[in-house]
Amino acid sequence: MGSIVVVDYGMGNLRSVSKALEALGASAQVTDDPVAVAEASKVVVPGVGAFDVAMRELTSRRLIKPILKAVAEGKPYLGICLGMQLLFENSDEGQGAKGFGLLRGAVRRLPESAGKIPHMGWNQVQGQETRGKGQGSCPLLEGIPDGSFFYFVHSYAVYPADPALTTLQTDYGGLFASMVWRQNVYATQFHPEKSQAVGLTLLKNFVEL
After folding, report:
1. What gap in Å lies between CA 197 and CA 163, rounded to an integer?
2. Is the CB of residue 138 less than 8 Å from the CB of residue 130?
3. What sign results for the dihedral spanned by CA atoms 87, 88, 93, 98?
4. 3-207 is classed in which CATH architecture?
5. Is 191 an annotated catalytic residue?
6. What is the DSSP string of 179-195?
7. 48-98 pLDDT per residue, tens
8. Is 138 one of the catalytic residues?
């Protein structure tokens, strides 16, 4: 199973994520130590807040290189909420701030037609087969019925350049990617640690990868 590092860059309730992982029997360490991140067997990047501030914090704590190194070595990465958005090239938030650039695409503000922003509360996810690239069924979704409801809190969403990255979609004033997946990189816009049984199932699948 190995050690799981929950990356601490000063944004979001990291303890709720680590507690959920520990409840599933995982060894989870919340840390901002670049060496610990580089040496972990799995990396979790949660977060709530502004994209540009997150990138500044990650840079100042020297955390971006070890995160990218872990991904390059094939270690499982789970991004949650802001931790999903940071994977992409840039964001409308923070005047076009640059992200990790691991995945092509951009982060855009949810449309005003959606109604209340931020999008907060339970919403449905759809479409559990990845289109293209022959990846098959996403291992993190094993045991989770299509059409399940997860808990969201966000004002911005990811729009991947490659539609095959989108594993789950959610409708809020239009469809957005609520989960993406490529090889060892998994990320959700929703908060599995706040999503009761279905969220714990997803986290359990990640722990058992």
Report:
1. 28
2. yes
3. positive
4. 3-Layer(aba) Sandwich (3.40)
5. yes
6. EEEETTEEEESS-GGGS
7. 889 999 999 999 999 999 999 999 999 999 999 999 999 999 999 887 789
8. no
Q: Where are the domains of the chain?
A: 3-207
- Beta-carbon count within 10 A of 145 CB: 9
Catalytic residue among 119, 138, 154, 191: 191
Q: What is d(CA 147, CA 176) in angstroms, rounded to the nearest whole number? A: 15
**Residue of 81, 93, 119, 154 marked catalytic:** 81
CA 17 vs CA 78, 96, 136: distances in Å: 11, 28, 27
Query: Is 154 labeled as catalytic in the residue annotation?
Result: no
List the structure tokens of 40: 């972990």
- Chain centre distance of CA 91: 15
pTM above 0.85, yes or no: yes
